[in-house]
Design brief:
By secondary structure, this protein is mainly α. It has one domain: TspO/MBR protein (Ferritin, Up-down Bundle), CATH 1.20.1260.100. Helix 1 packs antiparallel against helix 3 and helix 5 packs antiparallel against helix 7. The mean pLDDT is about 90.
Length: about 160
């Protein structure tokens, strides 16, 4: 009975542990004009982490933890966690965009895998895909608007 609760809260707890404020470098960046206000991001991510956690709990309690759908879920979580230090920590916005593209692909595959087990679990990941598309365009906009901030391939 504890496993569904742990799985539901796990992504949110990981985000709290690893979350860092964007910092002054991000504040100075040119961003797309339609960038949401800063208060939107923690609200959206809290909801998304709870939805993905609940979806994973539904799948894991249906077919078990050591399965392909849960492995796909773990991969996308690792990609999700790896984006923040690359974008905010290193300021390598182009590399972060590459991670975000891999994350989006991994979430689509996870959504398909979850849907095959439990359609409701797959549906719970659809808002995550939608937000990642927004995040992709924001990240791409940062790359396009800040060419001086993109590390050179020659270095």
């Amino acid at each position: 009975m504890l496993l569904p609760i742990v799985l539901t809260l796990f992504p949110l707890l990981v985000s709290f542990v690893l979350a860092k404020p964007p910092g002054p470098r991000y504040e100075r960046l040119a961003k797309p004009s339609w960038t949401p206000p800063p208060v939107v991001f923690p609200v959206v991510w809290t909801v998304l982490y709870l939805l993905m956690g609940y979806a994973s709990a539904r799948v894991a309690t249906t077919i078990g933890l050591w399965t392909v759908p849960i492995a796909a879920y773990a991969v996308q979580l690792l990609l999700n966690v790896s984006w923040t230090p690359v974008f905010f920590g290193r300021g390598d916005y182009a590399a972060a965009l590459t991670i975000l593209r891999a994350l989006l692909a991994a979430v689509v595959l996870t959504t398909i895998a979850f849907w095959r087990v439990d359609p409701a679990s797959g549906a719970l990941l659809l808002p995550y895909i939608a937000w990642l598309l927004v995040a992709h365009e924001l990240n791409r906009g940062v790359v396009d608007l800040n060419p001086q901030s993109v590390p050179s391939a020659a270095t």
